[in-house]
Amino acid sequence: MTTSSFSENALVQIENQVDPDPKATPRRRIKRKTWQTIIWFAGLLVLTAVVLYPLIWLFISTFKPNSEFGSNQGLIPNNPTIDNYVKLAEGIGGVPMSQFFLNSFLIAGASVIGTVISSALAAYAFARLQFKGLSILFAVMIGTLLLPFHVVIIPQYIMFNNLGMVDTFWPLILPKFLATEAFFVFLMVQFIRQMPRDMDEAAKIDGAGHARIFWSIIVPLIKPALITCAIFSFIWAWNDFLGPLLYLTSPENYPLPIALRLYNDASSGGSDFGATVAASLVALVPILLFFIVFQRFLVDGVATQGLKG
Questions:
Q1: What is the pLDDT of residue 4?
Q2: Nearest in space to 82 (alpha carbons), one of 269, 258, 286, 281
Q3: Separation CA 261–CA 165 (nearest Å)
Q4: What is the pLDDT of residue 93?
């Protein structure tokens, strides 16, 4: 064996000792003790039970007869019954429950469409267009977030009453198409301002106008903001009680929040708590389904906020 070959072999052995192959020595997995795992899962179960207890109580209480509300303070009903769901199917005030659902879906769906479209257009104008008074108008729009809804109730009611729109869905839907939700406009403005203007300039060189830039470039990139706007506007419109209470007077036009009040109307001679609980559970299902379907887009949008294009 020559001296050079011996030196090379020695050098290889030294390098292997200093920097061993990570694949040859697998990582040692840290094993959690059994009692630690039990305590961890027990804590999670307790926390989950605390969070889900209101929903569990709501579901089980739908099987309680009306006489047990107030007397039976336990979770499990003494005499389970499905009469509450039978009353729910029959409706109230001569109006079937399906009509209340249809009214709520119509108001909430139109509110989502109007809010998303109008807020996106207004946000594009504030973020991409340059005109006199831009900063003043944007400051005024942000200032409306500090204006309570109760301040504008009377002027709005007088205006819609003069237009003959009281007891219709127009007072609840029409403002959504006028970008009156400053929170959503501000949210989309921040999304659009984070986007580089190079894409807009390249599109203008190719002959694209503002409409084409907005639809082909801006809208696909602000999809997370649009999904967030749709989720919250649907929930707010679905749960809105004060607006329908002011503008709707006919029972056949009532949405679900107003219909729930009919089950506890003192003028009718009593309160049907069982039917109220059942109607509350059924009214909660569309919101849960809507959020479950679109939460993936919401999470994806939050996860991609740190990425730069």
A1: 46
A2: 281
A3: 23
A4: 74
At 137, which helix (H) or strand (E)?
Answer: helix 134-143
Residue corresponding to tokens 């007072």: 171
HEC states along 28-48? CCCCCCHHHHHHHHHHHHHHH
CA–CA distance, 28 with 103 (Å, rounded to integer)? 61
Query: Percent helix, strand, coil in the chain (nearest 5)?
Result: 70, 0, 30
Distance CA 165, CA 253 (A): 13
How many CB atoms lie under 10 A from the CB of residue 178? 11
Q: How many CA atoms lie within 13 A of 61 on its CB side?
A: 27
Q: Dihedral through CA 180, CA 183, CA 185, CA 187, nearest 10?
A: -170
Query: Which string of DSSP letters, residue by residue, matches 8-35?
Result: HHHHHHHHHHHS--TTTSPPPPPPPPHH
In-domain check, residue 68: no
The Cα 189–Cα 76 span in angstroms is 50
In a domain? residue 160: yes
Which residues partner with 95 through β-bridges?
A: 92
CATH code of the domain containing 223: 1.10.3720.10
Low-confidence ranges of the chain (pLDDT < 50): 1-7, 10-12, 14-15, 17-20, 22, 24, 266-267, 305-309
Domains: count for the chain:
1
- Identify the bridge partners of residue 107 per DSSP, sorted by sequence position: none
**What pLDDT, on a 0 to 100 scale, did the predictor assign at position 210?**
87
3-state DSSP assignment of residue 57: helix
Residue 10 lies in a domain: no
Structural domain contains residue 61: no
- 169 lies in which domain range? 89-303
